Amino acid sequence: MTSAIPPNTPSTQGPQVRAAALARNPKLWLVPTVLSAIVAVGLALLYMGGILNPNENLHRLPVALVDEDRGAPLPGQRENLGKQITDAIVASGPSKNAVDWRRLDRAEAQDALASGKVFGALVVPADFTASVAALTTDRATVRPTLTVLTNPGLGSLGSSLTAQINQRAAHQASLTIGKQLSATTDLATTRLLLTDPVAVTTEVGHPIGRHSGLGLTAFYYTLLLVLGGFIGGNLVNSGVDTALGYADSEIGPWHSRHPTVPISRTQTLILKMLMTAGISVLTTTLVMVATIAILGMDASHLPMLWIFSYCATVAVGLGVQAINAAFGGIGQLVSMFVFIALALPSSGATVPLEATPGFYRFLGVFEPMHQLSSGVRSILYFDARADAGLARGWIMIAVGVALALAFGLAMTHYYDRRGLRRLTPQPA
């Protein structure tokens, strides 16, 4: 039943309605106008609301604080400078709620960096008090140093924010120490040095590959997986409906309509889900070939990456099928908000969730892209460690698949029991 209908066939003869006449009907404008406005405003608020003020929205950003200072206290003081500095940083008012300072030793801090549990670290070296004490003598030649460690695997913005926080804390500590010591010496050169006595060096605490997009490849790779599942699921949905005769197919002027296959909603959903799982094998493989083999993206643990990628794509695809089966014509819009519009700004992959308003941190608890990006990040940057987000990623994939199956099958079974057919079958 495929044909290009000529303009003067009997099916098109008779008075024709003109577009200008229809355009004057306000009811025709109402639904698309309202939906377009809601989508535009919603997307603008969602995407821009999470990125405008990362510094002002900081909430318990995890940062390691390492005190290795083993020097004796300076004269007249009960504790060495390392202990004084770290205590002051933790107790500081402005950053008390913004930063989650975690007191760790060097080995614990390195492990936290390697598992993505902290965005960076501030390290007070073992000779810090001794090197500060030397400044008040004529042997002052080298400035004491505090070290800032970054974690680019958690994203360039998160690593940069943490580095700025650590540098400000170190600079404030330097000024405080300078005020305390300036009155203890009469040497002009030393007094000048003591106005800001501590140097700050920045080093990479946990390095990642050169072809890792400064820590952004995990986000964009996850986005590919989600888009693959989302687009693939909708293509399967429309393709199956067309093949079974429940939707028309139009390509340019060519229109086709297949005979309607008598099939229940439940069986249709099962077919679509099976096809989604099968086609995802191809899409996942091609995504990996394109990003790793062709573009040269740094990636380790390739078997694990492929299995996780496939399961992630399938979970999204099954979710799309369940939503389409439940909501019908607006299913694509609903699934777009669930898997794209709400998921992107709450992913925490570009802007840390700790630097976003509370609404986005709430979405990050269950929105799929945050869970999937944590798993991908663990595989790409953190040696596929379970405690770096991989375990949570697997758990949320399992939960997502279970919810998609339960929700989709429950809704189609309900519709079938109520006798709610999709449309009247068309004969061949």
UniProtKB/TrEMBL annotation:
GO terms for cellular component: plasma membrane. It is found in: Cell membrane. Residues 35-398 form the DUF3533 domain. The chain crosses the membrane at residues 29-52, 273-295, 307-327, 334-353, 394-415. The keyword ATP-binding does not apply. InterPro entries: DUF3533, T7SS_ABC-Transporter. It is a multi-pass membrane protein. It holds the Pfam family DUF3533. Its main location: membrane. Keywords: Cell membrane, Membrane, Transmembrane, Transmembrane helix. It comes from the Bacteria. PANTHER family: DOXORUBICIN RESISTANCE ABC TRANSPORTER PERMEASE PROTEIN DRRB, TRANSPORT PERMEASE YVFS-RELATED. Belongs to the ABC-2 integral membrane protein family. This is DUF3533 domain-containing protein. It comes from Streptomyces venezuelae (strain ATCC 10712 / CBS 650.69 / DSM 40230 / JCM 4526 / NBRC 13096 / PD 04745). The lineage of its organism: Bacteria, Bacillati, Actinomycetota, Actinomycetes, Kitasatosporales.
